[in-house]
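G., the chain you wanted modeled:
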Amino acid sequence: MSARLNAAQPYALGLFRIVIGLLFAVHGVASLFGVLGGAAGTHGGTVAAGTWPGWYAAVIQLVAGGLVLLGLGTRGAALIASGSMAFAYFDVHQQAAFWPIENGGELSVLFCWTFFLLIFTGSGAFGLDRVVASRRVTSAEERTREPIAA
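Predicted structure as tokens:
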């Protein structure tokens, strides 16, 4: 049983990354473009451009979420996303109460730790990181081949 689960691990991780990236990017889309219910607390509106920290958080959500969704630069995007969610929790939510269940910060904590995990696991299957890495290996191999002298 363990061998089969271990063999499927990259695929499960890839699907996990896709879902998390999509959910994170949707938050950015909602805040920046006012779709899907809009930014939280605006009744379908958007976050004003350039406002701190809301607009910057929405841009991070859109860009980092999109990169994680595609599996492109997953570890770097996950690092930025995790940090932004840690900031959101400590700057916004923890001021109201200590526990996430009391201060409404469960989603920030979950995203923070989820992205933290992706920093260490990478993109798994289905990611563009693998395509880029395989192209780099192929081009490096081609460069190291020396012509045979007659």
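The two ends are 56 Å apart (CA to CA).

Shout if anything looks off.
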